[in-house]
Amino acid sequence: MAGNFDLNQPLMGAGLESPADEEGVHVSFSQLIAEQIGESPDGFELQQLQRALNDEDRDYVGELGSAFEYPGRGLNDMEGEDDDGGETDPQDGLPWSSATLKILSSMPSRTIGRSRGAILSQYYNKTLQLRRRGQSRSSLRDFSRSSRPTIRGYGMEVDTTDGPESEMKKKKERLVNNLQNLSVGERLKMLRGMPVSVAEKKELRRLTLQKDKPPPSSSKIPCCSQLKFYIIIAARHSWYSWLSFLHSLQPWQFLFKRIGGRFGTGVLSYFQFLKTLLLFNVFLFLVTFAFLVLPQAMHPTELPVGVRTFSGLELISGAGLFTDTVMYYGYYSNSTLQKSCAREHNASASTDHDCVSERLSYNMPLAYFFTIGMSFFITCIILVYSMSKSFGRSFRIDKSYSILAMKVFSSWDFRVIKKSSVELMSQNNCTQLREILAEVVQKKEKNGGCQALWRLMVHGLAWAICIGGTAGCVISVYFFSEYMHQDLQRTSRQTNTHPLLKEASLLALPALVSLLNLLLPSLFSLAAWMEEYHSPSVRTYVALGRNLMLKVSVLAVLCYHWLGRVAANPSDINLMCWETFVGQELYRFLIMDFIFTLLNTLFGELLWRLFSRNVLRRSRNPAFDIARNVLDLIYAQTLAWIGVLFSPLLPAVQILKLLLLFYVKVTSVMMNCQVPRRPYRVSQMTTIFITLLCFPSFLGASVCVTYTMWSIKPSSSCGPFRGLRTMFQAGKRWVQELEKNNPDLSVLARVHAYLVENPFFLFVGAGIFLIVIYFYSQVVDGQRKVIELLQEHIEEEGAHKKYLISKLQNMHESKKRIPRRLRSQDSGC
């Protein structure tokens, strides 16, 4: 099979049969065996064995294990290997009788596929039933027993001849006639599934096509048919070219192949996750820009008197010139945006009624409320769908041995002819093979009692260090944020404070948090070095858990600072619009996090590589820390989701940040980082990333935004919700006005009161989502267990066959000893 092998590709896409057909094959084999034994009272195979036991005196053949390990070997392959008709196992030297081997050769798994006559008869019946029933696919269990291939009639001996030549020709002609009457798709599918050589398939295809050709007198095709044929071919080529063009438009495909081929799936999963976050932010930006930013920009708000100059500090602080723009919540109007009439009023030309009818209105408070709410709702649906789909792909049964075989024999794409692409594909396949082989040869470590106790103490000490460091970080952020809040209270009472100095002082808290997020993961890496994890994947998962603990704790303290201190008492720090201040804070945190990420890339990767090579004289480069970089992305995305309520253009800032970060990280990884010393396959890494993005990140951001809209009072002098008790009242007021103007829509008001105003339905909806996720995960887990049971059943079936054949061999040995004893007694007498 020449094609790209994708572990995530469905089985049907790979051309494999469905489990239902596998079950039919299993049932048909069982019925076939029962048919062979049931029609003769003593059993045909046992009769053959009894004859062999009575005829032979000394007959030693090879061991059963070799027959199972090399199922392609038959009796013909073993003839002539021993002069006395037997073969001895090279490892154990245990002989097996030829009668036992004859029974092995007569099993359905050995006989089906060897006889061309049986194959032609089987597929003749298949094509005949397809013609009669008109179905596109059929299972083996749909056929009668007479249409199934049988080992009776072809002899017990494995022979290269398939019967008289005339009989073979008749069977082939009947099969070709039936194939001719099938559709092109069914014919190709039937030929592809036949267990014969490629040459015979080509011969059958050639005969079928020859019969399809019309006689020479009618070989002329009408012009209309030719035109129709050329149109269909052109449309098909255009469609394939369009699909290829769309595939080429996917960003960073070549870079992904380079990274995956050199560093493996672990590092590649980080960049794929970054691309996923970029798509989420693009969606959020398009929604907010279309429904909030663009309408407000078309109807600009009157700004207060006073000109602000651009100082350059706004790019980091987000304040100054950016304050009174569409960047922040405070700029948006609380009225219905309307477009006035094109002409002026005059007594002779128009009336007030005509002018009002020509106006275009846009309710900005209602649009702001529903845009934020629907964007979060759609994002939640996409996240849940992505997570469930990722669960189904990664938590399946994929044994390394089977994946290794498929990767070796089915992963090369012979359509690739460009030299650079061939080298890239070869490197990618080699890296994936190394990862699978590392998983195959991985051994579970066995520790004694003292060693296990020692490792437990080391793990406990490492976790105590990590938890203590996280607690110290959280306490530092809490008290420093309180200090900064008190400093804002003091500076708000002073009138001689320079604006630039005040803006610069606001960068202290984001700088401290970003510095702690930069330094503390190094402590976690030191703790992991103490623990000495043998599995790189386990080490990555532990690092993810520790970094997640740090990020969640810091974000919880920051949300309390913004919503519990700033929003609760905005007058203490002389704020006219606390929503704009919180939006600026979130902008500063995003920018500062990006700056410290660049510093980590510069000092932690580039300078360390130069220092290691030039000073330490070692060629060892730093490793790419997947856990730290992924949690940095999740942390920044959480800030963007929280900040979209206070700064509708914050997703645009996040998009620019992710684009720059991608190219910086790609360059740093290719130049500064080393290939993992121990390759490992991370089949579940992407699923864990999406899960962390959904539950701690998006769920926490949704709780903060919902709490702000339902419980906190908006500013009374700015924003679209000024004058309201909560942001949520914007929807309630619109429904009341709608019911007042049109009493027929009173049902809508009741629906809004029960479904939107009542938080019970919100919790019910969230609970339904959680139940769906839990149910889907349980279904996947149940499927995994069923597959495991089926695999164990197959192994037990093989063990049962070995046991039965061992019993047959013992019976043969015991019957051989009796004539020898009689001969020895006769010679003694």
Automatic annotation (TrEMBL):
What molecular functions are annotated in GO for this chain?
mechanosensitive monoatomic ion channel activity
Q: Which residues form the TMC domain?
A: 577-683
Q: Which Pfam families would you find in this protein's record?
A: TMC
Residues annotated as transmembrane? 267-294, 366-386, 461-480, 507-529, 541-563, 586-608, 629-649, 655-675, 687-710, 760-777
Where is this gene product found?
Answer: Membrane
The answer to whether keyword Kinase applies is: no
Superkingdom field: Eukaryota
Give me the ranges of the annotated region Disordered. Answer: 1-22, 66-95, 131-169
Keyword match Transmembrane helix? yes
Membrane topology of the entry: Multi-pass membrane protein
Major subcellular site? membrane
Q: Which GO terms describe its cellular component?
A: plasma membrane
* Segments of skewed composition (Acidic residues): 78-90
Q: Which UniProt keywords apply?
A: Membrane, Transmembrane, Transmembrane helix
Name the family the entry cites. Answer: Belongs to the TMC family.
The name under which this protein is listed is: Transmembrane channel-like protein
**What positions belong to coiled-coil segments?**
none
